[in-house]
Amino acid sequence: MTEQDDFFSHLSQQQLMVVGDVMLDRYWYGDTHRISPEAPVPVVNIEHTQDRAGGAANVALNLRALGVTTQLIGAIGQDTTGEQLQALLTAQQVQCHFIRDPQMTTITKLRVLGRHQQLIRLDFEQPDPGVGQAIEQQAMGLLDPNKVLILSDYAKGALLAPQGLIKAAKAKGIKVLVDPKSRDLSIYQGADVITPNIHEFEAAVGPCNSDSVLISQGQKLLQQFNFAAILITRGNQGMLLIEPHSTLAIPAQAREVFDITGAGDTVIAVMGALLASGENLANAAKVANLAAGIAVGKIGTAQITQAELADSWASLPRQGSQHKIVTLPKLLNELPKAKCCGESIVMTNGCFDVLHAGHVQYLEQAKALGARLIVAINDDLSVSRLKGASRPINSLAQRMQVLAGLGCVDWVIAFSQDTPEQLIAELLPDILVKGGDYTPETIAGAQQILKHGGQVKILDFIPGCSTTGILQRAQMQAVPVTQHSMEIEP
Fold first, then answer.
1. Which of 106, 345, 371, 489 has the fewest CB atoms within 10 Å, i.e. is most exposed?
2. Structural domain of residue 468, as residue ranges?
3. Annotated catalytic residue within 128, 265, 353, 380
4. Confidence (pLDDT) at 334
5. 357 and 268 in one domain?
6. What is the per-residue pLDDT for 14?
7. Is 265 a catalytic residue?
8. What is the reported pTM?
9. 302 and 333 in one domain?
């Protein structure tokens, strides 16, 4: 996995639609010191109250907290509760397209809490079974220009028959994510991702007494209902992402759990936002898992901000060296932090197709000139243009991974031009390093560095270490490698 911490900065450019059961979550907080003389129940002295958006409305608010432009389609009654819910959402710039149904009561859940413990929940609802069709028609007319459609099903009538909407979205190339409530998962057929919790999953397929059974049942559902993936949330066991040819177990983030209310809303919102921004499923699931860990540490339905998520992601311990492989936006974000700490930045570049001891020693010498070392590496097409059609021997991903594994290397970044001049001009390292028979005037990017007060250094290559020699020896040993005339270049 390439860790692209900068993906959070792209969320504000995304637009998503949420369709489902919207509701108002009410919280009455107080303290309790005695048992009622009328019945064996605690007496709660209510001190303050709070109204929050729940259900699909909470998904929408989670998206807005991440900076995502959000449309919300659902149904409310013609009552003051519905007006209060819409006002909460509008204040956060959620674009509400509600069906105001005189036949229904706006769904409301009232929770009474004493000393941070939920003592009782009272539900007020009078759904209209026919409202789903009106919601579907409303949503179909607003599908463009959304990148992702999230269906938030709380089994209150909004999504009794969502097949028409799913097919319409897929026909437009819109990804569909579903937080399912129905035991009959066929009604979500064709969705890209469904996100049941373990209880909802087992309600649909039966008890799963081991991970192998869980995975087997998940694979069957993928084939049966044409899902691209299933993300099962399992509480303190974390999550399980099941795809047609792979399974990813994601451990839970250890946190004190105060309230699991709305954690599923957070998961599907974060998944949807990241998929819309171009992230792959594995990355999106890992960040969604982190977001769920933050959510359960809060009381009631709560939203995770982009800043909270980015900070928590950045604070995670990094495994291996993959975090060194960066994009340009990520590196532009990291360099000012390093310079503020007084760290000088060294940069070099090359193809690094067959890494050898000479390369390693060269890079160690380059790193010794400063605090941080950036290695810019030619992508595969530019290597082919420079070295011939049979090159590179190793792909860009493989070459970057090997470089990232070196202790002297801090960041590895790819470029597609024949020279890194444009990249160097954007990064402006303190010291630009090159190896070989160059002069500063002939090194790509040198003029920009010198113009901004930087230095250009030329290092000698290590005698006896040659990419050409390695390839020639391989050819002599009957390894099918085409010989090319090439410079010994890092």
1. 371
2. 323-476
3. 265
4. 85
5. no
6. 93
7. yes
8. 0.66
9. no
